[in-house]
Amino acid sequence: MTPEEQAAFFTVHSDLPREGPGLPDDVYWAVEHLGLSGTLRVLDAGCGPGADLEVLARALPEARIEGIDKVPHFVQAAQTRVAAYAPRVTAELRDMAELDGTYDLIWCAGALYFLGVTAGLKRWRDALNRGGMVAFSEPVLVTTPASAEATAFWEEYPQITDLEGIKAQVADAGYEVQAHRMIVGAPWRAYFDPMQARMDMLRKLDPDAALAVALEENQLEIDRWAAVPEQIAYALLIVTPR
Fold first, then answer.
1. DSSP 143
2. Does 229 sit behind a cis peptide bond, omega within 30 degrees of 0 on the bond before it?
3. Strand pairing partners for 139?
4. Is the Cα torsion angle 139, 145, 149, 155 positive or negative in sign?
5. pTM listed for this prediction
6. Which structural domains are found in the chain, ordered by start?
7. What pLDDT is attached to residue 26?
8. What DSSP letter does each residue of 66-122 carry, written as one string?
């Protein structure tokens, strides 16, 4: 990606409430399923602008929670978002591939694919306390073979697999799946509707060539999702080391 393309991408992906599909219910489901409470240490890996970091702060009022991301303006947005919970909740510019703490829970919404499920989970094993867990969401094929529309939507993620394929990657990392749920429909609308509104605004500002391309690419993604929303999903999995 050229500097111009990167700048255009982040112009679209700025001032959005979240940087991937999801709802607060997803966080609460994981916390309640695991029975988490008390003075835990929690990491939100790839926290983006802090949507789930804020929910984790509410769901775990005694926990120390750290959000990390590699994108400076996401970290700044997350810091503003969780300022009311400081110093218990923080957001920092750090790489989720290089963790330097031990955690009771690592939460990672739609970002583990940057490392790869198996490779990422292996990296994180030493960053978990005894009894620690990872909750992550990953692109998943709802039907196999995938429809032409779903295949087109995921064309930039050719390694996508079905739920059993993700479970196999988890097992290859030396973990077990404790529970899962599908992120489909409304959680995606919570991501795409604000993006659509931002793009509609940016189109009125006479975008330059690079931004025009970014707007077109993101519009195509939204339109492909809208064509078959029931077929586009993430799987949210809770996993523990064996």
1. S
2. no
3. 234
4. positive
5. 0.95
6. 3-241 (3.40.50.150)
7. 97
8. EEEES-HHHHHHHHHHTGGGTTTEEEEE--TTS--S-EEEEEEES-GGGT-HHHHHH
